[in-house]
Amino acid sequence: MEAFITVYTGEVFLFWRGLQPSVSIEDPEFAKQILSNKFGYVKPKLRPTLLPLTGNGLGMLNGLDWVRHRSILKPAFTMDKLKVMTKRMAACTIDMIDDWKNKALMADHQYMMIEMSEEFEKLSADVIAHVAFASSYVEAGEVFKAQKELQKQCIATVMDIDIPGSRFLPTPSNLQRWKLDNKVKNSLKCMVEGRIESFQSKEKLDRCYGDDMLGLMIEASKTAKKSLELNMGEIIDELREEVLRECGMGIPEADMLTKLKLVSMVLFETLTLYGPVLELDREASKDMKLGNLMFPKGVQITIQFLKIHRSKEYWGEDANEFNPLRLKNGVTHAAKHPSALLAFGLGPRACIGQNFAMLEAKVQASLSRWIILSRHCCGSLASCSNENDLESMQLCRVDCGDPLP
Q1: CB atoms within 10 A of CB 79
Q2: CATH number, position 127
Q3: pTM for the structure as a whole
Q4: Is 405 a member of any domain?
Q5: What CA–CA distance (Å, rounded) separates 255 from 85?
């Protein structure tokens, strides 16, 4: 990506993906106009081999189909509904911390490293399984495993030449992809059908699809049919103090999490510098004019999130440095352009799960405070190699307020 940024400079340039012309955009004002337009710029079609991974979900739909699906999903992601799920998020995070404690004890004073990225990846899957499927979380966990394997199979085909009809040939990779796709679809179908049957078997007054996301979406579907800089150590101390001040030493309530301003700043700054989405594609559904540019129908437009997020023109000379306090006046005032932060997209198609993701991250940060919000335990977690380290770990827990019994 660094080589790409070095070679291709300028806010607008044309490049080709095979036979598909694409225009690269780095101007946040252009990005705002494109993402705020409901129907002029649409999601381009994916390679057929990637469809088993994405399906015809909200992110892939356009037009009235997108409107209908969005109206069904939106009620499940309102803050009032998400606040109810805070306790489940907290329970999953506490289970992870307990697991770390057990591993540290089992190490018997021997050095042991825990890969944090893998742990939090598992935690995210566990939270989604509990919050989205509640009583069906065990089955959901199996679905996630199959989906992760399906992801590897699909991504492996990205650089392959797309020969028409090749996806129908019974090659080993196609057979494996079909098998995993069927497993994911059948498992999800069984969970949905089981929930509906459970609803129908209940007494009329007690009928409820459930307070998890699956239940809320089924209900919605039925209804629809009817400027100071701090160094990293100081930032960690500030974070720790804020979490303790707002959440105390117990399990945080949803209303407490909304007061974690510095935590929000750190999360958004992390998404700005290390966001999971490097670029976003749109396709002109008709001849479109953007500023002084004309885009013929069918041309793809690539919005370069990474280049916008690290542009010194919009973020200043410290654009590549981690500085959460640039967000002290809010997301829209963090840069010279109010639309320069595109972590969750923008406009009507902005990420529907933004509130869920931020709430989950705040729960994890507040409950992990005795590990990740202390100077003693910053970085990767290791079980302690000697008696002094174990003593430091216990002092750290007391100092930060261990929420566990």
Answers
A1: 11
A2: 1.10.630.10
A3: 0.64
A4: no
A5: 12
